[in-house]
Amino acid sequence: MAKQIKIKEIAKMAGVSAGTVDRIIHNRGHVSPESQAAVEQALAETGYKYNLHTSAISLKREYSLIITIPTAVEGEYWGFVQKGIEHALEEYSDIAIDHSYAFYNQFDIFSCKSAFERIPDMKPSAVLIGATFASETRILCRRLEDAGIPYAFVDSVIEDTHPSVSYSSDQNICGRIVGRLLNLMTPRDSELAIFSTRRIGNERALNSMARMTGLHAYFKGIKSRRVIKESKVSVIEPATSRKDILDFLQKNPDVKGIAVLNSRGYILADTLAKNGINDVKVVTFDLTVNNMRCIQDGTISAIIGQRPELQGFHAVKAMLRILLYNIKEKDAHHLMPTDIIIKENLPVYKEIFID
Amino acid sequence: MAKQIKIKEIAKMAGVSAGTVDRIIHNRGHVSPESQAAVEQALAETGYKYNLHTSAISLKREYSLIITIPTAVEGEYWGFVQKGIEHALEEYSDIAIDHSYAFYNQFDIFSCKSAFERIPDMKPSAVLIGATFASETRILCRRLEDAGIPYAFVDSVIEDTHPSVSYSSDQNICGRIVGRLLNLMTPRDSELAIFSTRRIGNERALNSMARMTGLHAYFKGIKSRRVIKESKVSVIEPATSRKDILDFLQKNPDVKGIAVLNSRGYILADTLAKNGINDVKVVTFDLTVNNMRCIQDGTISAIIGQRPELQGFHAVKAMLRILLYNIKEKDAHHLMPTDIIIKENLPVYKEIFID
DNA sequence: AGTAAATTTGTGCACGTACACGAGTGTTGT
DNA sequence: ACAACACTCGTGTACGTGCACAAATTTACT
Hints:
The first copy, chain A, is an alpha/beta fold.
């Protein structure tokens, strides 16, 4: 095992004291250019890695982290994101991190606005954003930037912002996967349909749009001539959408595969099952408890998973790296793996392997 | 954030010194029954969690870890396992862990025997085993148990042994997935074939067997009448198997889907491509560089991934938990997720997210 | 009872880093 | 030339735990 280089050794190499090295590592300033250069060279030469363990115990600053995401419900997408966040915070529980959540209703822009408005005034050390409404998010980011507060994105990235780091999935790829799966699972001469969420200025809808683009791109890529109907049914609440779903299927009897481009595939699946329709394959997003149940039943054929826990987990860890050590990565945008979950491998996806 | 309870506070509660608490936590003995009881009660009341960070820095013992796995080649299965192992060791690099590898040839039982024989004499603190040959492994485990040396399994678990922990995939599930995928990707009236590795007393072959069982189970479960040929072609070396492969296909022209139940699917795929056969779908195992290339080419349709890095990573972490803190888990056998990788999601699987 | 031995218990130092404080150096203005 | 100031830099202490060693207590035996 390679011996760890310690701050004192760096100090000796650079001909300065340990305190100076510390100042440089933490970007605290008050260091002469010569010392800076000498130490940086020593750091580079030795490939110094700060010892997180000891640095944690001697840390005296207190950090406050605000996490603003759509209301996290256990067993649903944002619930898993929160789980990952909590997991990371627990791992760093010996650092004084005061964290608080600012939840908002992902279908109500006003709840988002009022949640976002208060954040900069609370003067947090950093903010974790699960964005839904692009314009509101941009305003928040702008204010955070002005205040010098770093922020990170989970789940999606908003254009024209400058997050320290982001963890999300490539929604276009997700859409392509859905395309391929539906194409495989349905007869060549049958039609396909897309159910998605439509809301203007809603980033969730932007996710859906990217997925849709990917799906169409897949069929274009394989030069398929299959008919793909875009339903205007908004699959959000079971009660309201049930009738719309049945209407749609009655009008489009050749549709044998449906992509639900949000996480509400179970609503469609349940409706189909209740009405004895079992020759229509459903593919949807996110390993929520309801969707998992449908996979097990066989009413949903495949789920695209995006590792929400891992996104929350890594976002927090990255934020702490930035807060504690000002470590900036080259490429701050991380794409998470896109998992394909079917009945057979569902059980082994239930145990979550973060950290 | 809940305040951490420290050893000193426990000591005060129990009316003893910190040293005594330390002795009890580490089972060092030399403690009176009264102190023992008092401290244990205090520990239970407060739900004390040792601080891994600080304990690591003050740790003075040296640990030695032997990792005995099939020769790790970069970009192949065991190479990824090793990557995960190294990653975990790096995370704990402030603990004095002396680790060494005892590689063996997974196709040569004598190399395995001679690698295993030496291990107990080296008196390691713990051993990590990537098992291939069941009987040899059993002998090793037996000797380790007699010497009181804990050991862990990665990739596969051998019957009649008592590992402290294991990280592996459910091979039966893997086989079922392959079954479903091939069934989806090929015409209903076409035949399927299985290529696998056959070696008596070879656990790699046992893995193959479990996969085969799972595959057949899938087709039985859906009451399919498809013909599944079991080829005796051993897909190990490109040169030797090429002719056999072509012979097989010539004799079985209706085979349109082939499951290669080891990680050498690329050999079959390359052979098919070179001979202009592009209507036979191939599914195989493990995200090796060669298989990834074939996925990208489209010559392999799907790969089953088993998260080898994560297996190595977690196995080491679990071993260290056991060595350092004697933490025994309830259920020591962990099943890793079984990923389905196709052309579309291959890019996002390339970045590995361990820890 | 008195002493030696055995056992339990407390104390102090070390680990590597963070950060406050004060010492040291240089610069500017009168 | 000297004071006042700005800035850089080194020293010392604290963090929570592991572990060696010494101190205190109990036990055993003459």
